[in-house]
C-alpha cells in the first residue's frame, strides 16, 4: 500500500505495457484514464509506460487517444488536476497520449492475443499488466486465452499481472470456479482482484488509525464496543444499469466485496507486519469467522427493499420497476440490511449491522462504532434519565474524516448534556488532490504491492458469509418497498429495534 502523497519516497512505476480490455467502456474513460493522468501528473509513471486499449470497435491509435482526451476534458474535468489550475494540462496529456495505442480484436479470437504479443515485443520491456475492464462473462475466457498464448509466462526480468474487476463470481460456487480458472494459468502473486473502495484514502486510514494509535487498541473489543454499523447509501437509482442490476441486486453488488472489506478493516487482528501477505491473511481470517446463519436465521436477520416512485434531489423519480431494462414485476433488491456476527475472541457477542441502498436520502458511506454505556450513571436524581451512547464515526464519503462523540455539560445551573463531536475532516488537514480512487491501486499493481487487493480465500470467505442470505432469499424472494428519498423500508428499523438499538441518521 503506497502513500502517493509522499513523492520523496515513491518512485515511478517500472516501464510496463498496460492493456485495457473493454477500452470503450465507462470504467476506462471515467476512472482509469483520469487516474493514469493523475499518476503521470505526480511523476509516478515511467516514460516507458505503454497504454494499449483492446476492444472490438474499429478506431485508430490517434482516434482512441483523442476520444479519451475529449471525454476527460469535458465530463471528467473534476477528476484531474495540475499545478496551473483545473483541467487538462496539454503538455502533460501529450506526453501520456504519445504512448497510447489501440488493438481492435475479439476477446475470443486467438489473433487478438497474437497482436498483444507484438505490442509487448515492440514496447522494449517484457513487463505487462492485463486489466480486464470487461463484462464478467469474459473473465475466464480472456484469462484462459492469455495463458494459452504464453502471455502470462514470467521471467526473472519481466512480470505479467492480471487485474480483475468485480463482481468476482455471483455466489460461492462461481467464485471458486473463477479462482480455479485463474490459478490454472498463473500464480496468486500475479492476480490483482481490485475493489476500488480500498483505494479511498479514508479506508486505508482505518488501518493506520487503528494500529498506529495505542489508545484505540485498549477498547477495540467486545468489552467496550456494543455494536458496529456500516452504511453505504446512494442517492442515484440504477440509471442505465437496469439489465446488470436485474441479475445482480444490491447484496451481490455491494456486500461480499465493498462492505465486507470495510468490516475486515475494522475487525481484523493486528497483522504481524504491514505487508501484503500478513494484512490479507488477517482480513481473510476475520471474514472467515462470520457466523454461517441457518436459512431461517438468515431470513430473520436480513431485510430486502426496493425503491418505488418518490422525490430525490427535488425531482420526482421513477420506481425501480419503471426503470429501463427492469421487469415490471421484479423482485430484485435495491436495498439490503443484514445483521452478522463474528465468532472469534475479540468480537463474540458484538453484532455488525450492514446496510446499502439506492435512491436514499443522502450519499453517505461510513462506519459507526457504538460503545457500551458507562457502567454506572451517577445522575439518578437529576433530569438526565439516560446517557446517550458514544460513537466513533469514520466517514468514507463524501466528507472524509473521523469523529468521536462525547457527552459534555451545557453551561448553566442545571445538569443538561450535549453531544460534542471531536474529530477531523481530511480536507482541513491535508491537501486533497482530485482523484478517482484508482490511483493508488493502479500504482500498487504496477509496482507489485498486493496489500490492497483481495486474495482468493478472502473472496471465497466473503461469498460464504452471504451465501445463507442468498439461499434464504431463493426460497422467499419478497421485497419490501420504500419510497425514493427514504432510507430503506420500515423493517430495516425493526432489525435493530428488536435488539434495543437504532440506525444512525444518514448524511
UniProtKB/TrEMBL annotation:
Catalytic activity reported: D-glucose 6-phosphate + NADP(+) = 6-phospho-D-glucono-1,5-lactone + NADPH + H(+)
All residue ranges annotated as the Glucose-6-phosphate dehydrogenase NAD-binding domain in the record: 20-205
Task: Write out the GO cellular component annotations.
Answer: cytosol
What does the record give under GO molecular function? glucose-6-phosphate dehydrogenase activity; NADP binding
Active-site residues from the entry: 258
Boundaries of every Glucose-6-phosphate dehydrogenase C-terminal domain copy: 208-503
The function of this protein is:
Catalyzes the oxidation of glucose 6-phosphate to 6-phosphogluconolactone.
What name is this protein filed under? Glucose-6-phosphate 1-dehydrogenase
What is the scientific name of the source organism? Pseudomonas weihenstephanensis
Write the lineage as a comma-separated list.
Answer: Bacteria, Pseudomonadati, Pseudomonadota, Gammaproteobacteria, Pseudomonadales
